[in-house]
Design goal:
Strand order of the largest sheet: 1-2-6-3-4-5
Number of strands: 6
Helix content: under 10%
Shape: globular
Order of helices and strands: EEEEEE
CATH topology: Umud Fragment, subunit A
Radius of gyration: 12 Å
Structural class: mainly beta
Distance between the termini: 22 Å
CATH class: Mainly Beta
CATH superfamily: Umud Fragment, subunit A
Number of domains: 1
CATH architecture: Ribbon
Strand content: 35-45%
Length: about 90
């Protein structure tokens, strides 16, 4: 509806920006850039909220590791732009 997706943040990974229990709204079909917080659909891990680390020339997106996780250097890989479901536009803490 209105090009928005909603996500509840159950994890602690982005706790400075999105504390546990935050409800976040993401705008669909947007161009993302480094530093944006996005909702993605990862092929192995499902829907995740991550901060963009880099965007390649062909649109591939990579993500920052999350501090405080058991394995903060776990690489999610480079995802094609169609895996990005939306960019954070509003949060309810």
């Amino acid at each position: 509806m209105f090009g928005l997706s909603m996500a509840w943040i159950p994890a602690k990974g982005l706790r400075r920006l999105l504390p546990w229990g935050t409800v976040a709204l993401f705008r669909k079909r947007v161009v993302v850039k480094r530093g944006d917080v996005v909702l993605i659909r990862h092929p192995e891990h499902g829907r995740l909220v991550r901060r963009v680390f880099a965007v390649g020339r062909r649109g591939g997106v990579s993500f920052e590791p999350l501090p405080g996780m058991r394995n903060p250097h776990r690489n999610l890989g480079i995802l094609p732009p169609e895996r990005v479901l939306g960019r954070l536009v509003f949060r309810i803490i």
